Amino acid sequence: MKQKLNVRGFIGLSFLLPALVVSCGQPAPVPTVVGTWSGTYSTPPGSGSSPYGMIINTDGTLKVYDGPVGSADVATGTWTLTGQNFKATYHYVEGSDVMVNAVLNPSNLLTGTWGFAPSNTSGGSFTLTKQ
């Protein structure tokens, strides 16, 4: 009787253990940066915040709105994502080149700094939430 119980227990464990290892070994889903983002940017010191938005495309390009997504002030540029580090450079029609450096948080939040090229910190900070 005792031997049968041990064999049954071993068989049960042999099915349960791989399931536990597989489920525990799965990494948490990584958020994607591709999509529409809305939020605000600020310029120091204490100037308040202004609407800001981006449409980030799968082909490495983006559109930036100095206002809500869809507003008239549009810049175009390129982006990269290395791990959770997001970097972009974009150009406004009137001639300004802007660089951003941000972290893509697991909660679909981009937080970082922006600046006029060649700096990515000289302008201020921004926060964008994926829509």
Automatic annotation (TrEMBL):
Origin superkingdom: Bacteria
PROSITE patterns: PROKAR_LIPOPROTEIN
Signal peptide: 1-28
Keywords: Signal
Name of this protein: Lipocalin-like domain-containing protein
Organism: Deinococcus hopiensis KR-140
